[in-house]
Specification:
The protein is α/β, with parallel strands linked by helices and 302 residues long. It contains nine helices and nine strands. The chain has two domains: 167 residues, Rossmann fold (3-Layer(aba) Sandwich), CATH 3.40.50.300; 113 residues, GMP Synthetase, Chain A, domain 3 (2-Layer Sandwich). The longest helix has 18 residues. An essential GTPase that binds both GDP and GTP, with rapid nucleotide exchange. Plays a role in 16S rRNA processing and 30S ribosomal subunit biogenesis and possibly also in cell cycle regulation and energy metabolism.
Amino acid sequence: MTTRAGFIALIGEPNAGKSTLTNRMVGAKVSIVTHKVQTTRARIRGVAMQGESQLIFVDTPGMFQPRRRLDRAMVAAAWGGAADADIVVLLVEAHRGMTDGVRRILEGLQDIPKGRKIALAINKIDRVKAEDLLQLSKSLNEEFTFLNTFMISAEKGHGVDHLREWIAAELPEGPWLYPEDQIADLPMRMIAAEMTREKLTLRLHQELPYQLTVETESWQERDDGTARIDQVIYVARDGHKGIILGHKGETIKAISKASREELTEFLGRKVHLFLQIKVRENWLEEKERYSEMGLNFKDGNA
């Protein structure tokens, strides 16, 4: 049997469903999924097997009009992921259609190196009528010549198997790049930090959207088979600390509990999680914070 392996970049606007599709393809939660936009910061790779093919998904940050250093670094990471991949899949939300953001991405696709296979996946198809889907597909293919077009629902799984099979067949021939049972190439410390950041995002809603980051400071394997994980939540202002703590510490306790439970399930063993909050006014301008998120600090330059 011929083995195949390669990288697939999922690109699109924020909230297009890239993280949900990564998790659906891989069959495990490797990428942060929330109702908020711009939550995926690092290029998280999920590894999936389809027959004799190994599919390595690059879940890029959403592409949007950047305003801050962090925004610019995220968008640069997204285009970098697309340029390096063997296959690029553009996700477009069916109900939002041809937005200005999608038009900008279509223009950017013209600059992708020749030889890359670029497909279109119209996501969230359950939200619109069939005739509207066909019209949207026609409009998008008139703007850019896609190799193939798929109608999917990443959340419900509709059409995802068909997309996965096509990708598997289109990947270049070659040996597998990861062990068969590996699902992500991110260090576990970063996956753990992402899980806690997701819980913070879900709990705090509009109060503190992108002014915080989480880092795993230490990870200790204990003799009894459990793990002790110490994490730091960095915030930009002193007032943010109180929001995360909540009344009598209730908010931080709820976040810690939710994150600990998910980490325990993900690792398949008991986890002792300890969270600390530190105020670092300029963390959005610190090179080290970007390295921890898998982003290039220089990419954030205006």
